[in-house]
Write a structure and sequence with these properties.
With about 240 residues, the protein is mainly alpha-helical. It contains eleven helices and no strands. It has one domain: MetI-like (MetI-like fold), CATH 1.10.3720. The longest helix has about 30 residues.
Length: about 240
């Protein structure tokens, strides 16, 4: 199997172009307004003006970063537990629980969590983590199980301990598969985090929800475009 190579090495021009577009859309407000007025000429208001878009972008990135790190840690530990001797008998149970977490809509998880932990970023992070653990866990399991048995046996023959075989052989070989799960998870997080606006967590969902509420397509696009650009950047960079 080929070693993992970050996508940014292959897609540097496209990543740089997408990041430039994101920064221009966020900070070059007159340019953004001109584009939206050209595309949505029938709309009187084309920008969400109560707060700068940069604030929502930072809030969105914070939600995605914290939720993504937690999902990677939990998903990786869960995957390693499943492939261990102790956890292998519980593989089906753990994967079913993780699959159940992803099958529940993010909004439903937030709605259930709000009465217990209140509004704001806490119910959003809970929903994002529950929703994002499965892709990481499944790919950790698939990646480690795809390592040829001959490689593991060679490590055992060299006197490596189980931990050494895992760290020095299995994880590096499985990394391309694992990172596919991480990339999928982050793209899901970026889109799902827009729902945080429903419970007062901020993020790029605020202008989107405001535009939906006022039937203003330009305001929707004001928040949707950077969300799409973020997802594309992550997809191309990892």
């Amino acid at each position: 199997m080929k070693p993992y190579v970050p996508g940014i090495r292959r897609n540097l021009p496209s990543v740089a172009g997408l990041m430039t577009a994101l920064l221009l859309w966020t900070y070059a407000t007159p340019t953004t307004e001109a584009i939206l007025r050209f595309v949505f000429s029938a709309e009187g208001k084309v920008l969400y003006e109560r707060s700068p878009l940069s604030r929502f972008l930072m809030e969105h990135l914070s939600l995605v970063a914290v939720g993504g790190i937690a999902a990677v840690v939990i998903g990786t530990l869960g995957g390693l537990l499943i492939v261990s001797r102790v956890g292998r008998p519980f593989k089906d149970v753990v994967l079913r629980l993780a699959n159940f977490g992803q099958s529940v809509p993010t909004v439903a998880i937030m709605a259930i969590a709000v009465p217990s932990i209140g509004y704001g970023w806490r119910p959003v992070l809970l929903a994002l983590i529950v929703y994002s653990v499965l892709p990481v866990m499944v790919n950790v399991v698939a990646g480690i199980e795809s390592v040829p048995a001959a490689v593991v046996e060679a490590g055992r023959g060299m006197g490596m301990t189980r931990v050494e075989r895992l760290v020095q052989l299995q994880l590096p070989i499985a990394m391309p598969v694992i990172m596919t799960g991480v990339r999928t998870m982050l793209v899901i997080l970026i889109s799902a985090a827009t729902l945080g606006a429903v419970v007062g967590a901020g993020g790029l969902g605020v202008p989107i929800m405001s535009g939906i509420g006022s039937f203003n397509n330009a305001v929707i696009a004001h928040g949707a475009v950077p969300t799409i650009l973020l997802a594309l950047i992550v997809d191309q960079a990892l």
